[in-house]
Amino acid sequence: MSNVHPYVGRAHPRVDGALKVTGRAKYAAEFFADGMVYAAAVPATIAKGRIVSIDLSAAKSAPGVIDILTHENRPELPDSDEPYLNDMVAVPGSPFRALYNDRILYSGQPIALVVADTHENARHAASLVTATYEAETPTVDVAEARHEAYDTFEPRDGIPPPPPPRGDAEATFKGADIKLSESYRVAPEHHNPMELMATTVIWEGDGALTIHTKTQGVNNPKNYICAVLGLDPGKVRVTSPFVGGAFGMVLRPQYDLLVATMTAIKLERSVRLVLTRGQMYTMGWRPDTLQTVALSAKEDGELTSISHHAIQATSQFEDYQEPTVNWSGLIYDCPNVSLKYELAKIDVSTPSDMRAPGAALGVCALEIAMDELSYRLGMDPLELRLKNYAEKDQNDDKPFSSKELKAAYAQGAEQFGWKDRDSRPRSMRDGKELIGQGMATGCWEAMMQPHGGRATLSAEGKLEVACGTADIGTGTYTILAQIGADALGLDIDDVTARVGDTSLPMAPPEGGSWGAASAGNAVRVACTALKEELLKAARGLHDSPLANASLEHVSFANGKISLVSDDEKFVTFGDAVRGSGSADVTAEAMFEPDEDFAGKYASYTHSAVFAEVRVDEQLGVVRVTRIVSAIAAGKILNLATARSQILGGVVMGIGMALHEETMWDKALGRVVNANLGEYHMPAHADVQNIDVIFVEEDDKANPLGVKGLGEIGIVGAAAAIANAVFHATGKRVRDLPITIDKLL
Amino acid sequence: MMNFSYTRATTVGDAIEAVAGDPHARFIAGGTNLVDLMKYDVERPGRLVDITRLPLKDIEDTAEGGLKIGALVPNSDLAYDTRIERDYPLLASAILAGASAQLRNAATTGGNLLQRTRCYYFYDAGVPCNKREPGSGCPAKTGVNRIHAILGASDSCIATHPSDMCVALAALGATVHVEGPDGARTISFEDFHRLPGDSPEKDNTLAHGEMVTAVELPAPRFGKKHTYLKLRDRLSYAFALVSVAAAVELDGDVVGEARIALGGVAHKPWRVPEAEALLKGKLPSSSAFEEAADRLLKGAAGHGENDFKIELARRAVVRALFQAAAGTPQVQSSKIVN
């Protein structure tokens, strides 16, 4: 492949694509070691109460069974929360401890772990374990717990609580003529990554362990398992080179890690534990949330007050939180804002971050409410947004580092053909179908984390860039290779990216859309440090043509370090590396986000989402025929993988709008549709034309100008579709998903 | 999943003998449902008798002008068979409305008849279910029952039969050929599946050891005047909330004979001859179709979350009859309901 700089900004194909489609990319459950044994978890069948007894007799005599661990016979586990809180994504409360005691906190909680000689024998024996319980009546519906909602929780690290009220939203609303106050609910969802949860622990002897686990950041499970099991961090390596989808589900260590590692140590053998698809519905989920949004406006559409109140489900043992209501103080210019966020405990596993946590729910409610207001006003929904365009972050009273949302609105509207829309509900039809067009705004914070990176150049001119982040399918490998190739002026085929290993430089878990900005800049600074080292080596060569050159005097291209002023004077990469006296030259560096800048500016990504639906008037069948998602997210590193990120987010938005719902049986406290057949995600037929537009946005929050894309694609998508359904049918559905029955 | 023994049968007789003599034995063909159920510990056969090598893969002409479809003809082959496409497009359409291409490739004609309900509770070995464990109770009645029956349910079971193909076979008046330890017999399609009553563990009227060997179609009728309309929670790869197989024969301007079968609403494909008879001699019209729909749905009862299916079914029947009468059947590859 020819050397086509810059690679950054192009639509370069995934560098790991061939590995994935040929099955050579190894996932956590695909590592193997001689003597390995297989574990299977036994889930509790009640949602609340305690275990009276567990009958292991049938399981013990099943073929191939080696051991069965329960709370009664497990190895010692710490009895304080402290070690379990070694989780960078922990939330306030008492973290779940698998196989700790007889308490059942949610249905599906593991009560035993069966270890056998094969996966099949382990699963079969697990099915033979029976337990008797003292069951209590569970509550799994947040609406039934809303009277016990509270806001007295300790704030979760990194999650800003709602800002204090500004102005007087309540009094303004009371005195307003044009207003609405409505309640919204989005069904609870699960992440449903393709790859199942899995941990393979390789017993290396002498207490050394290599742990292959599904995670969004290898350092987090390493710190956690070392703390909980009292392991020497020098003897534990965690890898996760490939992740088959995560969406936030594996930011926190899940129980598979603890029980598999505990078992490996007890048996002094390698252990593999793969959870079942059904067990994937017994951990981390997008919490059921009851929201009320109240808006008032002047006749010209100027917002005079916004109130947003959310009651969000959490478990009995932890106060999971996400930024759900804050967006309502941020997206629009409004002098009177009141935001309230409460939790309510139910008998479920602790929710977890799921793609655009908080924003996916909160912005959805706000943006449906804004649509409702536009009809009250008789004003075009897009005009209403422009009328109330926020030029600064009023929550924190800061200017934006960049905000090209107006360009996103304009380009999205143009591409969609928004101006041709008849604004009246039920005004557009084609045969038996009503046509509706709706839009919404999306917003997500552009975050960065301190992040290590390493760059190594061999004498053959091959570059390796590496850091301990994860590629959860987003394209991290590819953008890191692009950044490395540009930094050294190399052909990208001469660049290898490595991630997902605790032997690599420190990285936080990959999430919150901070991965590209953090890992990308870490590789960038590592490459700069590498160039310094290479130049130092080149200068030291006998009669070096670069003897007095510093970094600004030279360029790195075509395998050479050349003087900018005279490209006849150069040192080849090979000579520089050999001059260093080593087989290769390597440099590590830390990327530290600019705290001064972050103190002065607020950084967000934005989107304008336009949706067209067609709804069969009699039968309520909804088809999403067109989506245009215009994104303002700073510099786009790779147009192909970036587009895929937005497409995936939009498809999840379609799911949120029309299909996805984790259904609990209220009496049993149990998820009933815990499989991909009955938990409906959009199928191909549900996904038609999606246009992604990236608008130009110049951002200075980091030298790459990148803001991150993982979340923004979903934010606003469900609201745009719900608004289009209203425009088509005149029916306002405020509890998503909008299934057929809600439109009859 | 339990350990099980596996044998491959070479003749129908051997297969029947192997299963009939062992209460824990099951026939297996495509396995698209049975293997899932084994993984869920819902089905726990000690022995599987593989019938996929038996000579039941042909589609033969019958003396009556119909077709006899071997039980092992894959769903895909059946749907794309030129005789089926030409003479029984309703059947082809219904098959293509179901599952996915991959599943249709593996699933067989006989197996499609024998697929079990998709009731959530039936699939969860951790909770009671009268169909899975007779006498243990039915949490669906007061639980999550969005997908459950509105017709023909009993106090002990409100599950539905999930097949699309069977809805078309019911409308077409197919006959099921079976062989068992006591010899061969035929069962009319409406008598093949049963309502749950007090023994919901029995989905159909086969005895243990009896094998479906063929499904016979009567001589073709209805021409283009048919449709299979399936309504579900997403546009593909979901079981029917309600589906309708409809076919009409016009006698001049008026309806001569009509067939209507509903899927997703009962423990079996739902047909009511009186409802079909109401259409005889009537001009195709909303009022005539609504009257038939109301008769078809007489006695329908919801259980809370599925109450909407009564109205949805009524509207679906009317639409389907319009599609059939106009000779503009639903195209399964298009998600626009015409």
From TrEMBL, chain A:
<dbReference type="InterPro" id="IPR036856">
    <property type="entry name" value="Ald_Oxase/Xan_DH_a/b_sf"/>
</dbReference>
<dbReference type="InterPro" id="IPR046867">
    <property type="entry name" value="AldOxase/xan_DH_MoCoBD2"/>
</dbReference>
<dbReference type="Pfam" id="PF02738">
    <property type="entry name" value="MoCoBD_1"/>
</dbReference>
<protein>
    <submittedName>
        <fullName>Dehydrogenase</fullName>
    </submittedName>
</protein>
<dbReference type="InterPro" id="IPR000674">
    <property type="entry name" value="Ald_Oxase/Xan_DH_a/b"/>
</dbReference>
<dbReference type="GO" id="GO:0016491">
    <property type="term" value="F:oxidoreductase activity"/>
</dbReference>
<feature type="domain" description="Aldehyde oxidase/xanthine dehydrogenase a/b hammerhead">
    <location>
        <begin position="22"/>
        <end position="137"/>
    </location>
</feature>
<dbReference type="InterPro" id="IPR016208">
    <property type="entry name" value="Ald_Oxase/xanthine_DH-like"/>
</dbReference>
<dbReference type="Pfam" id="PF01315">
    <property type="entry name" value="Ald_Xan_dh_C"/>
</dbReference>
<dbReference type="Pfam" id="PF20256">
    <property type="entry name" value="MoCoBD_2"/>
</dbReference>
<dbReference type="InterPro" id="IPR037165">
    <property type="entry name" value="AldOxase/xan_DH_Mopterin-bd_sf"/>
</dbReference>
<dbReference type="GO" id="GO:0005506">
    <property type="term" value="F:iron ion binding"/>
</dbReference>
<dbReference type="InterPro" id="IPR008274">
    <property type="entry name" value="AldOxase/xan_DH_MoCoBD1"/>
</dbReference>
Automatic annotation (TrEMBL), chain B:
<dbReference type="GO" id="GO:0016491">
    <property type="term" value="F:oxidoreductase activity"/>
</dbReference>
<dbReference type="InterPro" id="IPR002346">
    <property type="entry name" value="Mopterin_DH_FAD-bd"/>
</dbReference>
<keyword id="KW-0285">Flavoprotein</keyword>
<dbReference type="InterPro" id="IPR016166">
    <property type="entry name" value="FAD-bd_PCMH"/>
</dbReference>
<protein>
    <submittedName>
        <fullName>Oxidoreductase</fullName>
    </submittedName>
</protein>
<feature type="domain" description="FAD-binding PCMH-type">
    <location>
        <begin position="1"/>
        <end position="222"/>
    </location>
</feature>
<dbReference type="GO" id="GO:0071949">
    <property type="term" value="F:FAD binding"/>
</dbReference>
<dbReference type="InterPro" id="IPR036318">
    <property type="entry name" value="FAD-bd_PCMH-like_sf"/>
</dbReference>
<dbReference type="InterPro" id="IPR016167">
    <property type="entry name" value="FAD-bd_PCMH_sub1"/>
</dbReference>
<dbReference type="Pfam" id="PF00941">
    <property type="entry name" value="FAD_binding_5"/>
</dbReference>
<keyword id="KW-0274">FAD</keyword>
<dbReference type="InterPro" id="IPR005107">
    <property type="entry name" value="CO_DH_flav_C"/>
</dbReference>
<dbReference type="Pfam" id="PF03450">
    <property type="entry name" value="CO_deh_flav_C"/>
</dbReference>
<dbReference type="InterPro" id="IPR016169">
    <property type="entry name" value="FAD-bd_PCMH_sub2"/>
</dbReference>
<dbReference type="InterPro" id="IPR036683">
    <property type="entry name" value="CO_DH_flav_C_dom_sf"/>
</dbReference>
<dbReference type="InterPro" id="IPR051312">
    <property type="entry name" value="Diverse_Substr_Oxidored"/>
</dbReference>
